[in-house]
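User: quick one, fold this
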Amino acid sequence: MLDLIAILLGLCFGSFLNVVIIRIPQNKSVILPSSSCPHCGNKLKPYHNIPVLSYIFLGGKCGFCKSKISIMYPIVESVSAVLAYAIYLKFGYSFAALFIALSVLLFFALCIIDLKTLEVPDSVNFSAFIFALIGGILHFGDFLFVVASALSLAGFMTLLRFAMQNITKKDVLGEGDIIIIATMGALLGWKITFFAIFLSALFALVVLLILSKKDYKVPFVPFLFLGTLPTLFFPEFFNAYIENYIIQA
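Assistant:
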């Protein structure tokens, strides 16, 4: 039953994230007005808003004007359900898991927004950070460790940003990315966050090499998210590496 609840909560929050992804970049309220079809403007019925199932039953089309509905809606809902369930399996049925899930799911929403608009909205970003602080404190049981990890990483990345700007004369790291790295620090602790950043840079490098001959600006938030996932769910592996190789070396 708890497994089912975790999945259903993930689906429902994923439906809310779809609203966040669309409305926040447009500076619109995520509460009012109620959801409507972007093509015909008709307000959706409650049975039109059932996560994933409504998309399937409606054949991927609006129930009124039959316009095509973006496949991103069920994808966001499905991924949110998977993430929520994975967090439940990792952290158990606890308040720590709840706040960690909220932070990770908002982080996921930031990925989609960054991919679509190349922007990182402060309202979503800071919300993810606050939830990460609460979840990290509850999980690690150490207020100073979590806060110090988040703030020290934010400070380090800020100095790195200014240094890289002076060297390259380009803005290589946005202010929004710094807050996201602080969120990662709160969720993972400062040591493992460096592994997450390394993985993020590695994933980004592969994509940049593929797109090297194309005029395309690559958003970095999705890579930070991809780097966070393995370190969040398998911290034991990275801690063991630190203890067995880095510390002993």
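User: anything notable?
Assistant: The radius of gyration is 19 Å.
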